[in-house]
Amino acid sequence: MTYLFLLSGFILACALSMIVLPNILFVSHKKQLFDMPDARKVHHTPVPRLGGLSFAPIIMVSIFSVLGALLCLGYLPDDCLAYLPEYLFLFSGLIILYLTGEADDLVGVSYRYKFLVQILAAILIILSGNWIHSFSGLFGIWDVPGWIGIPATVFVIIFITNSINLIDGIDGLASGLTIISLVTLCALLFHDSSFVHTLLGVATIGVVVPFWFYNVFGNAHRGHKLFMGDTGSLTLGYILSFLVIYLSYDVETPGESRPMIIAFSSLLVPMLDVIRVAFHRIRKGRNPFLPDRNHIHHKLLRAGMRKTRYVMLTIICIDVLLIVLNTLLATKINVTFIILIDVVLWTSIQLVINYYIRKNHGGPSYVPEGTEKRSAE
Q1: Structure pTM?
Q2: Cα dihedral 184, 128, 91, 274 sign
């Protein structure tokens, strides 16, 4: 019954997404609601950026419909009511972020205002009792009091939410990394018998998968391409942060540290990239919150990769590598050493990319895909 319960959530979310996305495309083209190209962006054709409008409503409809059906049939999981406060606060914060992202996609919102809204959304999760009670052995620290754990939780939620938002720079990257992370988190949640949280994860996968195909394989010139916009990235980042915090709850002994390490490992690429970019901007005397072209996908393009699809696949492979590596190491060595290994590996990858950027300096510049023939002429 559990498998049917989860499969129903995925199929319903996937079906609703396939119905809603074409309508978002139609309205976007009808009202000329496009993400316009500029010097910082990779795309060169106006593309609708409202795909994320479908995410939160479909996720909520899918979860509530499945749980409602189970309630009517008398098969509702025993722990469902116990999680009700968490989900009331979660969806309250989700709607706040959803509306903020929608406003940003339509008229623009300052990063200061978005930051304040993210703090409010993070506090709502904490009010449900979901906050980090342990550092899982990081620097030898396990149990932490609320005055440390609660601010750390706010930081983690904002950090993860913005990581997904900032990595959303090329086709399929943010959505692809989100799918990989959600699959990992759902496996941990299912193993932990947290079926209601697993339902949230599979419903989110169901809504993202159809979008990924529109985003990666859609033809912009024929009006079939779609971006998620800030509405989508903030929605996905918030849900991911909620699931990661849940898996990090009340870890007190070394034997229980594995889920927390793997949960954070599923988001290492976007998190490490944000840290690197922020330090780079600060070192250059720039505002760390203002955008530039120094994210890993921009660097890979400058390093010589001509197809954004290859860049996307390369970054996803790096993400999978880190997840597998940390999963294998989680029960063998302390989390501090795992993080050191991750940082060394990430730094090595950056050094290799920098080498190819220097090697290509002064050579043929990056030609956007689809324009090679025109540029040659």
Answers
A1: 0.91
A2: negative
